[in-house]
């Protein structure tokens, strides 16, 4: 068989050249082979190689270009590589001349030309088109009362887009938009968009979500000497909910002390000092195509909800810990002490100063603090500690009064749990038992308001005028008769006696009113409503109508079926550890004849015809 000497020479030359590429011993015609297809398809973010190989000449110059722009120039010997600045960190070169893209992005889509040149040899060139596709971008927005699902591949008109879960529509323009009714099964369902990009497929997904029944949160800061209270309405609804803010029944807008964020999720209240008016019920009413929902929060002043004190065995150090209610407005804490001066932390035995009497602030803690270690105590002396919450310049009621030392003999035992739950209209007792001191002073507070004060056991207590419904038992327990919801508060009991360590205890009373039921017409349907005004804890349910539950207010619209005519429909309110209910009965119009009555008024005959009523609604 005849031998192609030129082909054999090229094969021999290639083997020699690739073996001695950097040492240099080959001397042949240039050749350039392309292993990649003419068009390389890649996903954005992937690593891509434009595969080529060269042979036939010693130490050629390899250059890759995008159009007229050289992006990589490689002189094999000396081994120098020059990369264009806007391709640095993106491209690199393999020893065989292949161009490597790392984490390639869509904007690197182009036709790339490689050339192999050597003085005295015929140059060789080849081109490869790189097409990089980014994944599609999904979103869902409100379109009046509907959902608008959108899928886009910006700057890309090749991808074929589809959202098969919604319908069979395809788009080749780089953008697909579908408007659909907000069916309840779409809430929480991931809707995917598929992009077919020549020979690859990429996708994105988006999940629409109805507004959630999560209570708002509150935070407080100081800014330029002002107290700024921020209430954040729990977010998470998709599309983003439209939010309207209320203080009680008053609609709030930007102006004065109130500032609503651009996305309406936050309400900022700016005051020089916290006022009683600021401690109100705030409601955010959310709505997106899935429907409305409202969440409320009742702000309270600076308050300590729980606290403790632990002393070391030597009696020289104590650790205070505390917590605050989630609805409290506060910016920091004063740690106060009564007793002899503390020993300096450097351990020097300085003479201790006498106790000057009264509580003094020994540390100021930021709002994030929940503990404080105090050292340098004299184990032979008595000390008293408490934590005072602050909201700017306003102080709240102190925590329980803690005492350490050898002379604290009085004790306070509490029968009531830290929180007492009661139904409105019931009689409630905050039970305590005081032992260890005869005839102490007993004082009950709400915040800084003294509501009951008894100086000796035989005297009648002084009771604040707006708390005439309360009384004091001989053991110091506080009794509420026919208690109403507005008496919900944290009550602080102070017990003092000269020569004894004072005691302080907090008991929270939560009074829940019964829910209120009603039924109204909603076009051709019945709308059952159950509410617990001013209560953001009660979980409401119409068990006969639906499994749906809501906090504070529940409204259900149902067809006016005949089985509902004359049937009492109950709403159940789950209120922590108690349950209360209400009921309402819808009634069709009754077939009674109208009634007639006649009178004479100012010389005129007045005939009145009354249609028998009784239908509900």
Automatic annotation (TrEMBL):
<dbReference type="Pfam" id="PF07679">
    <property type="entry name" value="I-set"/>
</dbReference>
<feature type="signal peptide">
    <location>
        <begin position="1"/>
        <end position="28"/>
    </location>
</feature>
<dbReference type="InterPro" id="IPR052598">
    <property type="entry name" value="IgSF_CEA-related"/>
</dbReference>
<keyword id="KW-0393">Immunoglobulin domain</keyword>
<dbReference type="InterPro" id="IPR003961">
    <property type="entry name" value="FN3_dom"/>
</dbReference>
<keyword id="KW-1015">Disulfide bond</keyword>
<keyword id="KW-0325">Glycoprotein</keyword>
<keyword id="KW-0732">Signal</keyword>
<dbReference type="InterPro" id="IPR013783">
    <property type="entry name" value="Ig-like_fold"/>
</dbReference>
<keyword id="KW-0677">Repeat</keyword>
<feature type="domain" description="Ig-like">
    <location>
        <begin position="211"/>
        <end position="305"/>
    </location>
</feature>
<dbReference type="InterPro" id="IPR007110">
    <property type="entry name" value="Ig-like_dom"/>
</dbReference>
<feature type="domain" description="Fibronectin type-III">
    <location>
        <begin position="303"/>
        <end position="411"/>
    </location>
</feature>
<protein>
    <recommendedName>
        <fullName>Ig-like domain-containing protein</fullName>
    </recommendedName>
</protein>
<dbReference type="InterPro" id="IPR036116">
    <property type="entry name" value="FN3_sf"/>
</dbReference>
<dbReference type="InterPro" id="IPR036179">
    <property type="entry name" value="Ig-like_dom_sf"/>
</dbReference>
<dbReference type="InterPro" id="IPR013098">
    <property type="entry name" value="Ig_I-set"/>
</dbReference>
<dbReference type="InterPro" id="IPR003599">
    <property type="entry name" value="Ig_sub"/>
</dbReference>
């Amino acid at each position: 068989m005849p031998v192609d000497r030129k082909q054999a020479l090229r094969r021999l030359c290639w083997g020699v050249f690739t073996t001695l590429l950097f040492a240099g011993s080959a001397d042949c015609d240039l050749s350039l082979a392309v292993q990649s297809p003419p068009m390389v398809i890649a996903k954005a973010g992937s690593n891509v190689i434009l595969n080529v190989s060269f042979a036939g000449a010693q130490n050629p110059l390899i250059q890759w270009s995008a159009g007229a722009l050289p992006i990589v120039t490689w002189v094999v010997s000396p081994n120098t590589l020059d990369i264009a600045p806007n391709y640095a960190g993106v491209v690199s070169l393999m020893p065989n001349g292949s161009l490597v893209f790392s984490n390639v992005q869509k904007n690197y889509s182009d036709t790339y030309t490689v050339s192999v040149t050597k003085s005295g040899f015929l140059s060789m060139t080849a081109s490869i088109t790189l097409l990089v596709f980014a994944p599609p971008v999904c979103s869902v927005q409100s379109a009046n009362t509907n959902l608008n699902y959108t899928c886009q591949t910006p700057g890309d008109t090749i991808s074929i887009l589809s959202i098969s879960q919604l319908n069979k529509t395809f788009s080749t323009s780089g953008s697909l938009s579908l408007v659909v009714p907000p069916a309840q099964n779409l809430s929480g369902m991931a809707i995917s968009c598929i992009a077919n990009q020549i020979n690859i497929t990429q996708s994105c997904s988006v999940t629409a979500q109805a507004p959630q029944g999560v209570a708002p949160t509150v935070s407080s800061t100081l800014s330029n000497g002002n107290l700024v209270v921020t209430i954040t309405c729990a977010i998470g609804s998709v599309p983003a909910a439209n939010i309207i803010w209320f203080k009680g029944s008053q609609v709030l807008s930007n102006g004065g002390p109130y500032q609503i964020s651009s996305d309406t999720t936050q309400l900022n209240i700016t005051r020089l000092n916290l006022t009683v008016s600021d401690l109100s019920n705030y409601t955010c009413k959310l709505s997106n195509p899935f429907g409305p929902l409202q969440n409320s929060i009742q702000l309270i002043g600076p308050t300590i909800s729980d606290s403790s004190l632990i002393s070391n065995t030597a009696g020289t150090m104590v650790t205070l810990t505390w917590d605050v209610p989630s609805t409290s407005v506060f910016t920091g804490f004063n740690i106060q002490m009564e007793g002899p001066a503390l020993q300096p932390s450097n351990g020097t035995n300085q003479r201790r100063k006498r106790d000057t009497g009264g509580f003094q602030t020994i540390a100021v803690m930021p709002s994030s603090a929940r503990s404080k270690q105090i050292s340098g105590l004299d184990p032979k002396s008595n000390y008293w500690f408490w934590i005072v919450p602050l909201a700017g310049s306003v102080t709240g009621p102190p925590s329980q009064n803690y005492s350490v030392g050898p002379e604290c003999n009085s004790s306070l035992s509490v029968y009531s749990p830290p929180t007492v739950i009661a139904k409105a209209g019931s009689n409630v007792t905050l039970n305590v038992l005081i032992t260890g001191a005869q005839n102490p002073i007993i004082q009950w507070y709400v915040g800084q308001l003294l509501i009951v004060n008894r100086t000796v056991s035989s005297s009648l207590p002084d009771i604040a005028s707006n708390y005439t419904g309360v009384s004091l038992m001989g053991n110091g327990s506080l009794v509420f008769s026919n208690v109403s919801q507005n008496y919900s508060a944290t009550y602080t009991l102070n017990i003092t006696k000269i020569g004894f360590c004072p005691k302080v205890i907090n008991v929270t009373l939560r009074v829940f009113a019964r829910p209120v039921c009603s039924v109204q017409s909603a076009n051709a349907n019945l709308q059952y409503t159950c509410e617990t005004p001013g209560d953001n804890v009660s979980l409401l349910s119409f068990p006969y109508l639906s499994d749906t539950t809501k906090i504070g207010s529940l409204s259900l619209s149902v067809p006016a079926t005949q089985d509902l005519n004359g049937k009492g429909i109950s709403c159940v309110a789950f209120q922590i550890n108690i349950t209360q209910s209400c009921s309402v009965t819808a009634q069709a119009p009754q077939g009674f004849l109208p009634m007639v009555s006649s009178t004479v008024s100012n010389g005129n005959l007045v005939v009145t015809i009354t249609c028998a009523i009784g239908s509900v609604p």
